[in-house]
Structures are given as structure tokens and as C-alpha cells.
Amino acid sequence: MEVTSKKVSRQKNRTVCKNCNTPCKGNYCYHCGQATATRQLEVKPLLWEAFFSVVDVNQGFIFTLKSLCIKPGEAIREYIEGRRIKYYPPHKYVLLIGAVAAFFSTRYHFFSGQPTSGILSIASDSRLAGFWLYADTYTTLINIITIPVFAIFSWLLRRKAYNYAENIVLNTYITSQQLLLFVSMVPLFECYSTTPRYVINFYVVVTLLYNVWVYKQFFGFKRWTGVLCAAFMMFSAYICQFLLNLLFFVVAKNLDVL
């Protein structure tokens, strides 16, 4: 106890910043901003610091996740219009969830592990087996690099209301939630391992409905014509991104990149 109290006392009385050697008072250096009291590095605090530097609950990770599940369009519009302090930044959000999705996609082989049917039967040709393996291996990357494609189509819905960069943010959050849904399907794959195609079809349907729901809330569509227009743009974006990914796969395959 005596040794501990001496350490605390020395930290409180410390008046020189260890980072820039500036004499200072209080808990932080007024010159560089570093805390005046620094502790010896230990494994447990270091791991927690690494975790919170990524998740950073104080910046609203949990709040953002909940908002994007309950009122996604309104939440994204709030962020774009400037009320951002309570939301987790979109680029960090998609990278964090994408990292988790990447781990599970390579482990479970959602697309390449089983022949597709139903909704995906149009692309179940055996010649595309390599493409589905590519989709499993680079699930997160594929979703992230197609964000600009979806942003173009959503921008076309209301060109005067939101610029292209704001549509990038909109679709970044949407992509993050799609990847989150992707991860949440893992228990279903465990329960229905013999019929995974039904889980995949369920994922596709929910993803499409979620996109339409977000666009409806975000753009404030009141009439069915607006909703149908959003659905048309979304389907067009999906077809476009699929063809672009297929083209990229073919080119990369011919160049022996993959």
C-alpha cells in the first residue's frame, strides 16, 4: 500500500510533460495534449486500449448500430446534416464490421460451399464456381468497393437534395448493415447446414428490403411511386455491381492475379 501511494503521489506532483518536456499543471499538457500522468505499460490495459481505439464506444458505436437497425434512414440523414457527435464514423463502422464478416465468410463459405438455387439460380452455373469462391474470399472487399456504384444510383434519385459524397456516406452505412446481417446468419448456417441455400435466399431478400426501407426513410418518399423508383434504382445497382465484379474476376483470372 505504501509503495502504491508513493507512485500515485509522484504522478500527481509531476509537472513536466514526458512527451515534450514542457512544464505544465493539471492532468494534460497544454502544449501537446498528452496526459501528465503516464503509467507503465501492461498487457491487459494495452489490449483494452487497442479494442476501444477501434470500437470506441464513447463515439457511439452501440448507438449507431441500434439506430441503423431501428430508424436507419433518419439516423443517416441526421449524420449527413451535421448532427454527428453521437454517431460512429461510417468509414470506421464499415471496416470494423467488415473485418468480422471477412473472418466468417472464409470459414463458412456461404456462396461457394453449396450450389445455389432459387433467387441465385440464375448464377449457379458450374462455370461460375470460381467466382463464388472469389466472393467468399473477398466478401468485405467486394462490398466496400461497390459502395461508389450504389452511391451513383442513389444520387440519381435526388440529385438536388444530396451530393455524391453524401450518398457515399449513405451507402457506406447500408453496406455495413448488410455485412452485419451476413455475420448474423452464422447461427442459421449452423442450424440449417444441410440446406444453406434457403439461408442465402433469406439473406438476399432481407438485404433488398432493407435497402428499400433505408432509401424510403432517407429520401422521405411518401408515395409508392417514390418507393418503386428507389427499388428500381437499387435493383439496377445490384445488377451493375454484380457485372462489374464478374468482369473484375474474369480479368484478374486471366492475369493470374487471383
TrEMBL record:
<keyword id="KW-1133">Transmembrane helix</keyword>
<feature type="transmembrane region" description="Helical">
    <location>
        <begin position="93"/>
        <end position="111"/>
    </location>
</feature>
<protein>
    <submittedName>
        <fullName>DUF3667 domain-containing protein</fullName>
    </submittedName>
</protein>
<feature type="transmembrane region" description="Helical">
    <location>
        <begin position="227"/>
        <end position="252"/>
    </location>
</feature>
<dbReference type="InterPro" id="IPR022134">
    <property type="entry name" value="DUF3667"/>
</dbReference>
<feature type="transmembrane region" description="Helical">
    <location>
        <begin position="168"/>
        <end position="186"/>
    </location>
</feature>
<feature type="transmembrane region" description="Helical">
    <location>
        <begin position="198"/>
        <end position="215"/>
    </location>
</feature>
<keyword id="KW-0472">Membrane</keyword>
<keyword id="KW-0812">Transmembrane</keyword>
<dbReference type="Pfam" id="PF12412">
    <property type="entry name" value="DUF3667"/>
</dbReference>
<feature type="transmembrane region" description="Helical">
    <location>
        <begin position="131"/>
        <end position="156"/>
    </location>
</feature>
